Amino acid sequence: MYKILSYFLLIIISIIIAFPFYWLIVTSFKTYPEIYSYPLTYYPHDVTFEHFKEIMRLDIGKYFINSLIVSITTSILSLIIAVLPAYAFSRFSFRGKNSLLTSVLLFQMFPMVIFLMPIFNLLKNIGLLDTYLGLILSYIAFTTPITIIFLRGFFIDIPESLEEAAMIDGCSIFQAFYKIILPLTLPGIASVGTYTFLFTWSELLYSMSFLLSKSKQTIPTFLSLFVGQYQTRWGPLFAGSLLATIPPLIIFIILQRYFIKGLTSGAVKE
Amino acid sequence: MLKISKNEKTAYKMVLPYVLIIVSLIVFLLTLNIYLSFTNNEGNFTFSNYIEAIKDPVFLIMLKNTVIWTICSVIGQLSLGLLVAILLNQIKKGEVIFRSIILILPWATLDIVAGVTWKWMFNDMYGVINDILFRFGFISDYISWLGQPKTALAAVIIANIWKGFSLSGLFFLAGLQAIPVQLYEAAEIDGANVFQKFTHVTIPQLKPILITTLMFTTIWTINYFPLIYTMTGGGPGYGTETFVTYIYRINFKFLEYNKSAALSNILFLIILFISILYIKVLTKEENS
């Protein structure tokens, strides 16, 4: 009885939640006259690929590559910086641990906008404004703390006896970590890396503020330029939006188990 | 006695990169903001940035908007998240499919994509929301949703609930699945009905996660920039201007960097206050 009610409600909620996404797909396949038609059509009567051709002609591929460069480098660098601190937080008790852990929790709550100007000035002074490296460095300040929280959650789940056994066999703590722990947590590490990747993939504020030349811009900035004050080119905008959403969507659906575990263990476990 | 054990030494070596790179960078940026906020264009010490920022009539408008945007979004996201989590927890078959559609889809959608999609759906002439409301007879005239401050604020809040409720849904689902079945069985033996089981078992067991989710959602909502930026740009007028969009506008439209530093510090203190409050509440909860 409750089960049937649950399914019924879930179906209704699914339809409502999926609708904006459905609308995005439908609009990107409509011709311009149909986009601006009255009455509204709820599915494309004339399926067209003109908007996809247009977005290809505007070289969306180049912005995909720009986004890939920034996102992949950011996630790899934040993993490298975060992995050992996360391990230390999961295994050792040391003086200052609590304040450092609190700093990790606090840092990921800082609004990105408050550092917009300081980072802008900093990058300008060290000559990294309008470079990928500059943007990546500013992202790392925000992605590393959350990466530490995720990784710590994964490390806690691994019994300490594994490293102890390795150390009895003559491994140092660092060797034990690289040989035993790292391979075991690899799926978790991959999913954190992907999470960072997706955060960067979607990020708009810093990428549009720090990458000034058009040829370097990332996907979100590229898409944002279609929204004009008076006129928005909905067709190519939606075609591009759909293309930009498909990769993260697939990754999310495949890795959802790990994301959910990482997020909740980070937030729930203390 | 200050003796550093071998383990502590290893731990310090391990956390060093984090302290050197991240902590020092953030401390440096915060210091820079504090310095900027207390200097005028000639580089002299002044309080005027703060005074001007607060005296500006927009300050109160955007503060009010931020409060409305945050409270409504948080209530909406938490209740929708809780409802979905409870429903998903009831079923076994098809959980992954429903979870993918309801919780993963909005989460995986890029911020800007969510923004433009909702902007188009709320369009006054060709928007599907007006069309649906009109067809079902809820409205007799098309509403210019994004053209008036009040409806624009409502529109960005609705879009934000859609974009952000997944996270509370996922937190709550994890929390529900961690509640031992025995507690429900015991309550059943004592003759509790569904509603009593919910108020006497589910809610108390879920309390730590409720507090955590409440805090995270509150802070993320205050910080959330791209949705408002794409849907309304803070307009019409200052109708949907929140703290973060206002700081952005001051920076890039008005180029008043010192004033924006002052505003940034005020926002920083607000966030810090909420975080400390949360940590206090959570430690108290854990000790009891």
Automatic annotation (TrEMBL), chain B:
InterPro entries: MetI-like, MetI-like_sf. One of its GO terms (biological process) is transmembrane transport. It comes from the Bacteria. Belongs to the binding-protein-dependent transport system permease family. The lineage of its organism: Bacteria, Thermotogati, Thermotogota, Thermotogae, Petrotogales. GO terms for cellular component: plasma membrane. It comes from Petrotoga mexicana DSM 14811. This is ABC transporter permease. Keywords: Cell membrane, Membrane, Transmembrane, Transmembrane helix, Transport. It is found in: Cell membrane. The chain crosses the membrane at residues 15-38, 67-88, 100-122, 209-229, 261-279.
